[in-house]
Amino acid sequence: MLIDFRLLHFFLYKMIQKNFQAVERSYECLDCHEAIFNPLCPDCLAFQVEAWLSSIDSYPLKDKIMKRIKEYVSTTKNIAGNSTKCIACRKYTATLCPYCFTNYVFILLKCLGVNREILREFLQFFNYDFDHTGYSKEAEELE
């Protein structure tokens, strides 16, 4: 399943932008509109993903993955209103819940066609699907 990344980025941007008005004065995720119970900002999560990617020796898609993630983080910053304080960096920039952020990265990895081992490792380190209703189901299939 190959998806045009411009379309994916445009879709996510429009979805967040459309719902921005309702979320502007609350501490809800820009994407899912749930309260952010685990306030890690997209910048801190992107930093963690980048550190994880650097542990994968000479993986050819590293730069492409990080470029897309940084574009996504930048987009959310541009439309964010009030946000809750990130527990890592202490800035008021936690605009997305960790689940929505990692779900975006997981979809991005699948669109780029990364191998099962990389997907499995990503889900081991960045599984914020605490309710087991989202990408955890795919994680179980990956063992």
Biggest sheet features: none
Cα(first) to Cα(last) distance is 21 Å
Q: What count of helical segments does DSSP give?
A: 6
Q: Which structural class do the helices and strands define? A: mainly alpha
Helix content: 55-70%
> Number of DSSP strands?
0
Q: Note the run of SSEs as H and E.
A: HHHHHH
Mean pLDDT: 78
Please report which band the strand proportion falls in: under 5%, 5-15%, 15-25%, 25-35%, 35-45% or over 45%. under 5%
Shape: globular
* Poorly predicted spans: 20-25
How is this structure best described in words?
The protein is an all-alpha fold and 143 residues long. The protein has a domain at 41-81 and 98-141. The protein is 56% helix and 0% strand. The chain is built from six helices and no strands. The protein is globular.
What's the helix and strand layout?
Layout (H helix, E strand, L loop, with lengths): L4 H19 L18 H13 L7 H18 L18 H14 L4 H10 L10 H6 L2
Helix pairs in contact: 1-3, 2-3
Offer a quick outline of the entry.
By secondary structure, the chain is mostly helical.
Task: Looking at this protein, list some descriptive labels.
143 residues, mainly alpha, 6 helices, 56% helix
